[in-house]
Specification:
There is one protein chain. By secondary structure, the protein is mostly helical. The chain has a domain of about 35 residues. It has three helices and no strands. Helix 1 crosses helix 2 and helix 2 packs across helix 3. The protein is globular.
């Protein structure tokens, strides 16, 4: 069984009419193929929309550079040596 998309064929959408693609994305998203068909029927075949329907919205700032934090863990190693 072929569960990975051929190189260069990922378009950001899920084509549930293609068996290998339905099985691939169902497995990747932790769904059965029937559950994925229902989600795609509700939100469309855009991969981002499907993921949001399954897992909820991505955390704010997802995929962006981390935001500088005001409070730091005093026990975290900051790269320097700690005085004991």
């Amino acid at each position: 069984m072929h569960l990975t998309p051929p190189a260069g064929l990922h378009s950001g959408t899920i084509n549930i009419a293609v068996t290998w693609e339905l099985n691939y994305w169902a497995t990747r998203l932790g769904l059965t193929p029937d559950e994925l068909i229902v989600v795609v029927a509700e939100v469309g075949n855009n991969l981002t929309d499907v993921r949001e329907a399954v897992f909820g919205p991505a955390p704010r700032g997802f995929g962006e550079a981390p935001v500088e934090r005001k409070h730091c863990d005093p026990l975290a190693d900051t790269g320097g040596s700690r005085k004991q």
